[in-house]
Predict the 3D structure of the following.
Amino acid sequence: MTKPLLDVEDLRVRFHLRTGTVEAVRGVSFQLGRERLGIVGESGSGKSQTGRAILGLTPPPGEVTAKRLAFDGIDLQKASKRTLRDLRGGRISMVMQDPKYSLNPVMTIGEQIIEAYQAHRKASKAEARDRALAMLEAVKMRDPTRVFSLYPHEVSGGMGQRAMIAMMLVTDPDLLIADEPTSALDVTVSMEVLRILDELVTERGMGLIFISHDLKLVSSFCDRVLVMYAGRVVEELEAKNLRDAQHPYTQGLMRCLPTLADDVRPLPTLNRDPAWAL
Amino acid sequence: MLDIQNLKVVFGTGRLRVEAVKNVSFHVEQGAAYGLVGESGSGKSTVLRAICGLAPITGGRVTVNGEAVTSPRSKAFYRTVQMVFQDPYASLHPRHTVDSTLSEPLAIHGEKDAESRILQALREVGLGPSFRFRYPHQLSGGQRQRIAIARALILRPKVLLLDEPTSALDASVQAEILNLLDDLRRRLGLTYILVSHDLAVVAHLCERLLVMQHGEAVEETTAAALRSGAASNEYTQSLIQASQGFTRAAPQPAQAPAA
Amino acid sequence: MAGAPPFPQPSGLQAWLLSAEPNSRWQARLGRGYLGWRSFTKNPLAVLGLAIVILLVLVAAFADFIAPYSPIVGGDLRTERLLPPSETYWLGTDDQARDIFSRIIYGSRITLFVVILVSIIATPVGLLVGTVSGYLGGWVDTVLMRITDIFLAFPRLVLALAFVAALGPGIENAVIAIAITSWPPYARIARAETLMIRNSDFIAAVKLQGASTPRIIMGHVVPLCVSSLIVRVTLDMAGIILTAAGLGFLGLGAQPPMPEWGAMVATGRNYLIDQWWVAAMPGIAIFVVSLGFNLLGDGLRDVLDPKAAK
């Protein structure tokens, strides 16, 4: 294996609250090449905080520590604010859950994509505009020029999320972190968005971290899956080998979902073993 | 038990006029569970809200237990029909303890022995008496939804309207709530109308279901037919396929119109 | 390390208060109150404000015991007029040879009277108008809010002046005048809060239990509006005290010889250059009490306002 794109070792995120210190992420380690990595867990498992910590977006009063947190050989912990700013949005991008909150409501979609591009690449206005239009086309907008001049509230959730992806990928990043990119969308729309995401990631050969609560979705989309529980990775496995999951938590997560295929009644529930959180 | 004939719901007038539900009809037997499936904007939740009076009935007829509903609904209606909402974080009053949340319906209907009925309601949803004086912020999402179910059941209704009762919950908690709902229906002989975007959830809980799109009924089918994949409608097929997870070499699904 | 618990060893009482499984309604309520108290005491300025307000209440309650002299009857007009602060007269004497310290002590009663009366008249009116208007909407909302707008359009002091001019000067009329001009902002706040609450699921849920509209407003909407109103009223107290003092200063509020702080400043103005303490002492009292209410209001906002609270 060549040098990994992202190298994370013993990542910890702590929040110092009035009531005491809460450790949201407790020693997560993984390496990422140019592949699709899924991080799965339930709410409170620390999966989103892991993604945010990599980008340096941990909200205060959070504190991030790690033995190693390196992106393409650059130590993210020691890097200057300027380097971080250049990396963020330039070489590492993030797609959030709800486009309603992550797009600026008073700028047109086109302007936002242009701004994202010009923030990281020296380009004339016309050049940036061409890039933006090309990007909108790449995310399969039917009428890119029309979408270009629309405001975020004028588009549907699925279109908003595709615009978001266009904005995040316009700088050709090496790594994309997608935090629940489709859970605010309808199923048929989300399949469409995922298909676009899949194509772009494969085409451009970038690394993808796909954070989701949906084990089924992640395992069908990614190459490798990390299962998180209470701030720790309890199991790491190849997506295609999900059926052979060893950890009882992973097994429980898979079984407790009702399926169309068979009718299990009552549904098996998860007996949370306190030992898993140790 | 519940009969809906040509239900039509219109919001607003003039340019803002939106036909949220167009001519939807279905019938639910006593003790049955009926599902309404569709994506956002399909009008499935509006049907539910029109039944219980939170949305206007513009046209058509809603009959509960053989009697057409009145507007505003009578007190007797609310003793027959109750509802559980989607988001357990929004459906409980933030300043009320579990105790006052549960005693409110009893006080409204002038019921006696609130004490024992609250404890019984808590027991029914699998929570102990230690939960009685907690505030919502001291409860997890699953526990909140259990309280919401207890509140709906405390008046001993015959029909329970369930609006996406598990979609805000984690998968493992969803399984617990689905088991609870399944169990309660059998024990108390309840009639359910379940609204969900998740085909698997509907197929798990209901025998029959109606697929909706853009405010119209697309297809009425049974859970058994759904399991065997025998959906005649193209839209239903695309929903079934999407619920199986992401498939790489799959053909393009039916284009979901971007509104 | 930050985040250490403020009390090193939880006592039995504290554990009872903070119990995650309260055994009674009262324990749940007290526990909630205790948590609020704990976050309130985190803010030293808020505690200072509370201390000032408590001091005001105590002084007003025990004025008879604290004040060394009568606030009304002066001393010897030949020898004891306009004396500077000394051991005998801590804050000096005024032009009627009355002890300023005693007058300020008794004046606290008038200030407290004004503040309490205005808040118990204006707050419920504003709360009721706002919640009813916001919850019912439609023409009720239009009518009530236009009435509110009309009251809001009057300058407070001018309306108070007109009112007092019509009814005759006096502290009661001043209170009524202030109350009439201070409820509209409360109605607006309550309405804004109600509009947010109105469409929430928990209101829909009580509706589905068959609750009547008055029951929903009183039992479910009002409790959520009260806290932001309390904060606003506390912050307004300073303004109310200043308006009362202003009316007193203009001779339209409390009438002589009542020891009202504003009126005291007004009389002291004649001697401002040579006998500064006559005007300055009641002025300082007004300042301190207003500041106290403001600090308290800020502290309460941190505890009560769910939007500002973290």
User: Anything to note?
Assistant: The mean pLDDT of chain C is 86. The radius of gyration of chain C is 23 Å.
